[in-house]
Each structure stands twice: as C-alpha cells, then as structure tokens.
# Entry
Amino acid sequence: MLRFAALLLGTGLVLQGCSGPDSKPESTGGDAYQATRYSQSQDAAPLRHIGADDVQDAQPRPDPILAVGNKSPYSVNGVSYRILDDYQAYRERGTASWYGSKFHGHETSNGEIFDLYAPSAAHKTLPIPCYARVTNLANGRSVIVRVNDRGPFHGDRLIDLSYAAAVKLGYMAQGTAEVEVEVLQIAGVDDRRNAPGSHYRYLQLGAFGAESSALRLQSELQAFLQVPVSVTEVDASGKLLYRVRVGPVASADELALVQQQLRDSGYAEGQPLP
# Structure
C-alpha cells in the first residue's frame, strides 16, 4: 500500500498521500486509481487510540533485500529517485510525518501488509526492508522501525512513520516532527536486489493453533491452485502453530497470478515471503 506514497509491486505506479493530525488532507496525485484503491478519501488516526507505552520497537532481523519494492531508479511526479547501494552508515535529519487508517490493511511497496499499530516506515531511497532508529529531536524519544514502504512524496519530508511509531515519538497530534534517522547495521543481511530470481517465492495464508483448520485451508486452496500448498509446524514462543503456505513459485509474475487467483476465489492474497 502506498502509505504516503507507495510503489505498486512490479508496476512502478506510485500513489500519494500526506500526513497530519487526526484528519489529514490529501496531496495531489494517484488519480483514478487512488480514488478507488482506498475506502477512505483522507487519512486519519484509528478509532482505537494507543499510548506510547503500548508501542514496542521493531525487532531487527537479517531479512533479505530482494528486487521487489526496490526498483531503481523510479520516478514520482517527474522527480527521479535512486535506491541507495551503500546505506549501512545512513544517518540524516529532516521532517517526519505519519500515516494511518486509510492505508491500514493495504500492501506496502514490497507486498507486506501495512499495520498502523506496528512500528514501520516509508522512505524514498533506503532499500526495503531495513531497520532504522528514528529519534524525535524535540523530546529525545526514539523508536526502531522496519522500513518497508516508499514515500513520503510530499514537500521536503524525509520519512513517513506508521501511526504507532508517531505515537511513540510523541508527535501524532501535530502531524510532523524534526527527527534523526539512523539505519541499524545488521549482520547476515543478504542483498539480492540484482540477483537472478530475486523475488518472493511463497505466500503465507495463515497460521493456526488447530492443525485441522490448517489442513482444511490447505485442501480448499489446493483444489484450485496449480502450485504447492503446504502445512508446516512452527514453534512461536512456546506455542505450536500450523502455518499454511503457497509456493514456491518461479517468478514474480507467477506470484502475482496466484494472488489474483486467490482474490478471485474470495481468499486473502497472502503475505509474500522469500
């Protein structure tokens, strides 16, 4: 989803949004697609408000950096942007905005699902995904976010944070804040942006506490999909879950086709995974 701006997977089409307090005006851009993509015409804070103590930092992990979401160069409103190759020492100060309920539940630029209650961010040139510490220069508060989206393409703003991250930094009400963004260096990150087959190969459709529920979904999906559907056991903090995944697929185009088949059959399109 393009929160204050998101690049659609594999298309290069970019939508725009903007930020501010509880009700936020839209910047121009996105045209007819923008008008039909989201159920809200303006972004806003959610009905269920949270406090700073409710927001936990994103937990950095060595996620691979794939081609999806990292098209470079790309253009928005006639301006060209290039994704940084050397980003590990990135540190910059500028204006942060935030985005919320309008984009909640929609895809980010790399196909993940935007959760306004999770600490995430959109950035114009950092590779995604990566992790950064964002510090509010006015009050010293900081939050670790997962950068998984593109934007903000509004004025001179540096970064767009999720509603939760803005709450954590204490600027949700005023809409923007001056911040410092510092990329966290994580060992073991596999940068496969330019590697053959650099795309997501699986879709996760759910994780169930009951094996019977997972097997039922597997049977339903396998009835109309031509790619494998598997159920695997995973230990989630001592709780046994049964994970349903579709794949592997051979290409990004095949992944998009499978997602379309899922949507057409009334299912969620799944969480893309490497």
Summary: The helical segments are 31-37, 163-169, 211-222, 252-264. The chain has two domains: 23-183, 202-273. The two ends are 19 Å apart (CA to CA).
